[in-house]
Design goal:
The complex is a heterodimer of chains A (about 500) and B (about 160).
Chain A: H1 7-21, H2 26-54, E1 57-60, E2 71-74, H3 76-102, H4 113-129, H5 133-151, H6 157-188, H7 193-199, H8 205-223, H9 231-235, H10 241-266, H11 273-292, H12 297-317, H13 321-352, H14 363-366, H15 368-382, H16 388-403, H17 406-435, H18 450-468, H19 470-486, H20 488-494
Antiparallel strand pairs in A: 1-2
Helix pairs in contact in A: 1-2, 1-4, 2-3, 3-4, 3-10, 3-13, 3-18, 4-5, 5-6, 5-10, 6-8, 7-20, 8-10, 10-12, 10-13, 11-12, 11-17, 12-13, 12-17, 13-15, 13-16, 13-18, 13-19, 15-17, 15-18, 16-17
Chain B: H1 8-25, H2 30-50, H3 71-102, H4 111-121, H5 125-131
Helix pairs in contact in B: 1-2, 2-3
Classes of the chains: A mainly alpha (about 500), B mainly alpha (about 160).
Family (chain A): Belongs to the CPA3 antiporters (TC 2.A.63) subunit D family.
Protein name (chain A): Na+/H+ antiporter subunit D
GO biological process, one term (chain A): ATP synthesis coupled electron transport
Amino acid sequence: MTALVPLPVLLPLLGAALTLLLVNRPLPQRLVSVSCLSATLLVAVLLLVRAYRHGPLVMQIGAWPAPVGIVLVADQLAALMLVVSSAVTLCVLLYSIGQGQGETGESAPLAIFHPTYLVLTAGVTNAFLAGDLFNLFVGFEMLLAASFVLLTLNGTRLRIRTGSTYVVVNVLASMIFLISVGLVYAATGTLNLAHLAARLDELPDGVRLSLQLMLLLAFGIKAAVFPLSAWLPDSYPTAPAPVTAVFAGLLTKVGVYAIIRTQTLLFPDERAGKLLLVVAGLTMLVGILGAVAQSDLKRLFSFTLVSHIGYMIFGVGLSTVAGLVGAIFYVVHHITIQTTLFLVAGLIEQRTGSTDLRRLGGLARVTPVLGVLFFVSAMNLAGIPPFSGFLGKLGLLQAGVAVGGVLPWTLVAVGTLTSLLTLYVASRVWSMAFWRVPCQTVRPSAPLPGLTVGATTVLVVLGVALTVVAGPLFDVTTGAAVDLRERTPYIHAVLPGGPP
Amino acid sequence: MSGTGANLMSFIAIGVLVGCGVSLLLERSLSRVLLGVILIGNGVNLLIIFGARPGGAPVAGVTERGAMSDPLPQAMVLTAIVITFGFTAFLLAISYRSWYLTGDDEVPDDIEDQRIVRRAARKEVSAVDLGGEPPELDPEQLDAPAPGQRGEGPG
């Protein structure tokens, strides 16, 4: 079974090489990338089942024993993230293939799209599986390099201008991450996460705290937590729809995953808890207020993305098992829903040629299917029962109430307010784009390609299915959270003989 | 080379490199930002090297076991150099493309800033701050006029 662990990284990389060879032959290229991602999804499901039943799976690459060699670890959290991310990337890939059939000109997909997309996937899975800090860094860099290319596809003026902000900010974040990796190694002499968990405890308090804050700073930029989030709504909306969708779904969540992993495994004390709570509240409020002020659909969704990152940070900041359960569940929910919303925005753009709310109108009558897709996922995001957004928010709020105290109660209030404001934003989009009598005629384009609508529908159904399987899903997230808080399952799996 | 490893001078050098890099990062021109990234990257690489145990070349048979330097940071720095190199090349490509398309390589203002500047130029900021948007700018009221002006509607 351990042989399965590196496959989620290897399969997409292999696919990237193959699709690069097949650049001039669209059909085989598409077949290769779809089958690679399907195989990744299958492997991820197997890993999750195995990790749920028998604990973490560890692969020591090259058979070098743990603190020396590179390890890949698939515990419940990593495996769950793998399953969700590969399902979402597969759907978005299908969407982009469907879009390619219907479009020409500037937004037509290039042959380079498939290899880059697969490298991005490999970077994401590598970050999830990484068992040491430097490998985590390499995973981040892989997905970043691919995201640079995807964000500036075709090199149009607008994409270059917004892309330059994205590149500079993210290179800076990588530098900060690299500095913290260097400092961690200088202070402890190891980078293996399980080994670090023991070694970091021996450090003086001040050194530990500064290392923790450096790592939080680097991951905070990647996850777009409030004071570090201004780059996101500026750079995401200009990219092609599938690219924005997969960025919104996955890239920020990799940052959140890194925060969860390091805060629980390396720094299990609750010293950063208050800081995280304050930051989480600000992220929720500032993000959603930004969304209220927007009139462009894609920018609006970028702001709700920033805002809802706050919920996950809230769960981590509570530093309890219940908080972590809520945070992990929310990550799963949010990856699915935010991707869906951006895909729907892409469909609207394809149908009408615009995502500007001031120009849209009457879509509910023109394309009822689009109306249903948007309505279900928007209500899901806002947290209307019985959707998974409601369950995730309920879990987090209950965890906050259970902790008690001024700050958690404030966060509970802010969380509720943000949820209501999200509902306001969603209903505003609904009434302007879908219900209003159209003020400008909708572009009489051909009907939407079946594959794009199909892929989006699958994602919407997945989002709804999260409610149906909420029981087992909460079992898995609870298992993951308990393992994270105990730390021993992870450490024992990586270092069976105890830390040297 | 079995030097003394980390000393004050090396850390001052790292500080100068990173400091110059940060001040270059704050510039608007992408080519200066690029130079800043290169300087910071080199500073960080030095930091990683100096953070580890110094000593002779870590090759069995060349150096005594106890006198070897730590090979792991050297491997990490190699990886980091490659990554920084790739990013530098990409930034260079972007700044060239930006110059090619627009005649300069400056990082633009973000959209909200541009909006505020435009409104200030039309002296709208105060009106918006005091009384909300005028009805013709408020998209939510676009279909408010009398039914006669609505047209037929879709379909």
